[in-house]
Amino acid sequence: MESGSLKTTHNIIDLGLGHPSLSLLPLHEMEKAMNRVLHRKNPEFLQYGRALGDDASRLILARFLSEVNEECITPEGLFITNGISQGLDLACTLFTGRHDTIFVEEPTYFYAHTIFSDHHLNVIGIPVDDQGITIEALEDMLRVYSPAFLYIIPPFQNPTSVSLAPDRREKLLTLSKKHDFYILSDEAYQLLHYSGPLILPLASMAESEKVISFGSFSKICAPGLRLGWIQAHPSVLRNFTHAGYVVSSGGLNPFTLGIITSFIEAGYQKEHLLYLREKYKKRAYALSSALQKYCKEKTTFTEPRGGFFIWVELESDCDAEELLERAEEKGVSFQPGVRFSHRGKLKNYVRLSFSYYDEEALTEGVRRLSEVL
Hints:
Helix 1 crosses helix 9 (about 255-265). This protein has about 375 residues and is α/β, with parallel strands linked by helices. The protein has helices spanning about 25-40, 55-70, 85-95, 110-120, 135-140, 165-180, 235-240, 245-250, 255-265, 270-295, 320-330, 360-370, and strands spanning about 15, 80, 100-105, 120-130, 130-135, 150, 180-185, 210-215, 230, 300, 310-315, 330-335, 335, 350-355. The longest helix is centred in the C-terminal third of the chain and has 27 residues, at about 270-295. Strands 2-9-8-7-6-3-4-5 form an 8-stranded mixed beta sheet, with helices on both faces. The chain has a 4-stranded antiparallel beta sheet with strand order 10-11-14-13. The protein folds into 2 domains: about 10-20 and about 270-370, Aspartate Aminotransferase, domain 1, CATH 3.90.1150; about 30-270, Type I PLP-dependent aspartate aminotransferase-like (Major domain) (Aspartate Aminotransferase, domain 2). A hairpin with a 2-residue loop joins strand 4 (about 120-130) and strand 5.
C-alpha cells in the first residue's frame, strides 16, 4: 500500500503513528547522495571512524545547523550518534548509577521510560503546562531530590506539542548550575516549526557544561538512517568519546554519516527540510480543522506550531484506553494519554499524529473518532 492513503492495514487509520509516510522519504535524492560518495573512490567512510565522528562531516553538519538555526554552531561541539535513543542510553550509562533519581516531564515520550527502566532509574515526573515544564514544581522537587539529570523536550514536546517559554529556559539553566544536574534536551522536532519564531537548541543558549542537546535526522530526513548528533560543551563530549562502547566501536555509523554528509553538501537536506515543513504544516491544519469540525463539543486542544502531534483532552470521565478498542472497531486508532505518564495518570487524554497521513485521511480519521466520542 501507499503510506498516507486511506487504504491502511485492516482499514484502520492509525493516528498514533509518530513517523513519516513513505511518500515523504527522499529516496531519489538519497540515491544520488550515495552515488556521489561511491564515485569519489575513497573508502574511508567504510572504516571504523573517529569517536566524535569524521572531522569534515562534523564541519559540514555544523555549517548546516548554523544556517538553519541562524546561530553559530561549531564542529567542536558536535558528537555523532546512532540517533537520540542511542544517545540517551549512552548518557544514562555515563551519568547515572543504578537507582539514581532523574526528572522527566509529565507527560513525556513513552519510549524514553523504557530506556530509563533499563538502567533501573528512579523516575520523578514534573508537570507540564502550556508554557512547558513548570519551574515552581521543579523547584519543589529539587528541595527533596538530587537528580542526576532532567530529561526534557523543549521544542514541540512529545506528546503535548508545547514549547518551553524563553523565561523558563533561562530559569532552567540557572537551576541546573545551582543544583548540579544535567539537562538532557531532546531536540527531535526543533527544526520542524510551522509558525512563530525559531526555537534554538537549548545547548545554543549558554556555554553551560550541564546542557546536552540531542538532534536527529529521523524527523528531518529518514528514520532508517539511525543517525543523529549531540550538541554540548567540548568538555562534556569527552565523556562520550571515552565511553567503553565508543572506544571499542570507533565512530558511530560512519557509513551513514558519509552518505548524509553528501546529502547535505548537495543541498538536499535543506530542500527536504523546507518541503517537510510545508507538508506537515498542511497536515497539522487539516487535523486541527477536522477536530474543530467533528469533535469540538467533546475535546479541548491547542493547534500545534511544530512537531508531529496534537494533544487532545477528552471529557473528564472518559478513559482513552477503554475508548481505543471501540475506536479501532470504527477504523481509527490513537495513543492513549496514560502511556505518556509514568504515574499512570492522564487517562482522559489522547495523542494524535499528523505526520503519517495526508489531509484526506486525517480528516476521515477524526470523523471516525467523532462517532465513537
